[in-house]
Design goal:
By secondary structure, this protein is an all-alpha fold. It has one domain. About 50% of the residues lie in helices and about 0% in strands. The chain is built from 2 helices and no strands. The relative contact order is 0.12.
C-alpha cells in the first residue's frame, strides 16, 4: 500500500488532532458512515433515508 493510500485510510479512520474530546463520537460515526458508503455497504443497511447522515 502506498504512503498516500495509508494517509487516506488514517484520515478516514481517525478524527483530526484538533478535535475536542466531546466531538469525537460524532466524527467517528460520520466517518464510519462515509466508509460504509464508499464500500457500498450503507445502501444494504435497513436505514430509511441514507442521506440523513450526510
Amino acid at each position: 500500500m502506498s504512503e498516500e493510500n495509508i494517509s487516506i485510510v488514517i484520515a478516514d479512520t481517525y478524527p483530526p488532532v484538533t478535535t475536542k474530546p466531546w466531538e469525537t463520537n460524532n466524527i467517528i460515526t460520520g466517518q464510519m458512515l462515509v466508509s460504509l458508503d464508499k464500500a457500498g455497504i450503507l445502501s444494504d443497511l435497513p436505514i430509511k433515508n441514507n442521506n440523513v447522515f450526510f
